[in-house]
């Protein structure tokens, strides 16, 4: 049984005042993976579109990636870290099971009066965070919010499993939300959905209370990503297509009104299937998965920042963000820039 809906808009509109992203320096190419698992650059590129991914250093955790992306978003928004009142980090690769990665970020960037917590909604997490932060700011409960999608997936991948290790990468993206000023941009609509009946299709089975990593024992199931790729692929195409349609309708728009689509960056074939079904111009779809692979909750956030900084989004443009991930979860948001 799945549930999906368009939350109503908050009392006051909310805009994205700044974006930022951070990718670790280390590049791991497909050719490099050929040396460790039975795969090929040709297979990875033709089946996924991924050419390389970034890998965080030892000692560089999800919170560090998140904090660097946050600093860049704050700088662009012109908001001091000390003024931030709410921090939500979307991640499935937290530094620790508790406390939340957002608590580490609060200290690292010096947002000492912020309320901080994590959202676990996998690849849809950044858009889940955006929607709840939009309501928190739009209702006047908080004057601003810092939302971050951040992952160190390299720490939760079985590097001997060719089915998964070629797909994922590390990185972080962030955005600062403020009340919308007269004539400025705003988030127009959002769609969120969940289908817990499909939880087994994509998960990290070990390390939680169902299969704990206790002292002196190895967990029976490893704390690494496990995925039934083909099944997930089909759900991803259907759910993202529908989330796009619902989000655009909730904004009172049609697909012809959308200037740029920023989709979750998991697989180029998924993106192509959605764009074709939406009858949308492929040139107006932002794609960077060739450089970073699938960075889960960070993917849409990084792509949004790159599109913004590359001048792909102009004031007044309407952009559609759409994501899908473990849960299963899906989400979309339509933003007037
Ligand atoms: O971010 C959350 C959402 N995640 C996604 O949306 C991912 C969705 N799934 C996918 O993107 C694709 O299903 C994958 C990229 C994971 C796999 O592509 P596929 O075209 O569905 O391949 P497949 O799983 O059907 O496997 C085809 C063949 C298999 O061999 P046989 O059984 O046909 O002999 C696999 O063993 O490809 C083999 N294979 C590989 N070969 C070389 C699987 N991984 C690899 C690999 N290198 N890395």
Layout of helices and strands:
Layout: E1 3-5, E2 14-22, E3 27-29, H1 30-34, H2 41-48, E4 52-54, H3 62-77, E5 86-90, H4 101-109, E6 115-119, H5 125-138, E7 145-152, H6 162-165, E8 170-179, E9 186-194, E10 202-203, E11 226-227, H7 229-250, E12 260-263, H8 268-278, H9 289-292, H10 299-309, E13 318-325, E14 329-336
Parallel strand pairs: 5-6, 5-7, 12-13
Antiparallel strand pairs: 1-9, 2-8, 3-4, 7-8, 9-14, 10-11, 13-14
The structure holds oxa(dethia)-CoA.
Strand order of the largest sheet: 1-9-14-13-12
Characterize the biggest β-sheet: 5 strands, mixed
Strand proportion: 15-25%
Gyration radius, rounded: 19 Å
Number of helices: 10
Residues in helices, as a percent range: 25-40%
Bound molecules: oxa(dethia)-CoA
Global outline: globular
**How much is the average pLDDT?**
96
Quick one: how many beta strands? 14
The CATH superfamily title: Thiolase/Chalcone synthase
Commentary on this structure:
The protein has 337 residues and is of the alpha+beta class. It has a single domain (1-337), classed as Thiolase/Chalcone synthase (Peroxisomal Thiolase, Chain A, domain 1, 3-Layer(aba) Sandwich), CATH 3.40.47.10. Helix content is 31%, strand content 23%. It contains 10 helices and 14 strands. The chain has helices at residues 30-34, 41-48, 62-77, 101-109, 125-138, 162-165, 229-250, 268-278, 289-292, 299-309, and strands at 3-5, 14-22, 27-29, 52-54, 86-90, 115-119, 145-152, 170-179, 186-194, 202-203, 226-227, 260-263, 318-325, 329-336. A 5-stranded mixed beta sheet has the order 1-9-14-13-12, sandwiched between helices. The protein has a 5-stranded mixed beta sheet with strand order 2-8-7-5-6, sandwiched between helices. The protein has a two-stranded antiparallel ribbon with strand order 3-4. Strand 5 (86-90), helix 4 and strand 6 (115-119) form a beta-alpha-beta unit. The longest helix is centred in the C-terminal third of the chain and has 22 residues, at 229-250. The mean pLDDT is 96. Bound molecules: oxa(dethia)-CoA (UT7). The site of oxa(dethia)-CoA (UT7) has 20 residues, from helix 2, helix 6, helix 7 and strand 13.
């Amino acid at each position: 049984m799945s549930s999906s809906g368009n939350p109503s808009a908050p009392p006051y509109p909310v805009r994205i005042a700044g974006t930022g992203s951070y990718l670790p320096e280390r590049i791991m190419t497909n050719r490099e993976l050929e040396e460790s698992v039975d795969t090929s650059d040709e297979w990875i590129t033709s089946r996924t579109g991924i050419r390389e991914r970034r890998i965080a250093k030892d000692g560089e955790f999800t919170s560090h990636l998140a904090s660097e992306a946050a600093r860049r978003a704050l700088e662009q928004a012109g908001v001091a870290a000390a003024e931030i009142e709410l921090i939500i980090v979307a991640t499935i690769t937290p530094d620790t099971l508790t406390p939340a990665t957002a608590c580490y970020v609060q200290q690292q960037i010096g947002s000492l009066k912020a309320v901080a917590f994590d959202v676990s909604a996998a690849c849809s997490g950044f858009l889940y965070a955006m929607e709840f932060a939009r309501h928190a700011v739009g209702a006047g409960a908080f004057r601003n919010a810092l939302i971050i999608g951040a992952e160190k997936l390299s720490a939760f991948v079985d590097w001997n499993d060719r089915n998964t290790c070629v797909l994922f990468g590390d990185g972080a993206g962030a955005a600062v939300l403020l009340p919308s000023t007269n004539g400025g941009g705003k988030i127009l609509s959002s769609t969120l959905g969940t289908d817990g009946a499909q939880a087994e299709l994509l998960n990290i089975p070990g390390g939680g209370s169902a299969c704990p990593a206790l002292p002196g024992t190895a967990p029976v199931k490893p704390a690494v990503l496990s995925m039934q790729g083909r099944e997930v692929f089909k759900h991803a195409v259907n759910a993202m297509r529908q989330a796009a349609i619902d989000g655009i309708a909730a904004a009172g728009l049609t697909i012809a009104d959308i200037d740029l689509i920023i989709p979750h960056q998991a697989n180029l074939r998924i993106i192509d299937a959605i764009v074709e079904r939406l009858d949308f111009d492929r040139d107006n779809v932002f794609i960077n998965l060739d450089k970073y692979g699938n960075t889960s909750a960070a993917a849409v956030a990084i792509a949004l920042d790159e599109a913004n900084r590359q001048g792909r989004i102009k004031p007044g443009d309407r952009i559609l963000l759409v994501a899908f991930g473990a849960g299963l979860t899906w989400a979309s948001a339509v933003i007037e820039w």
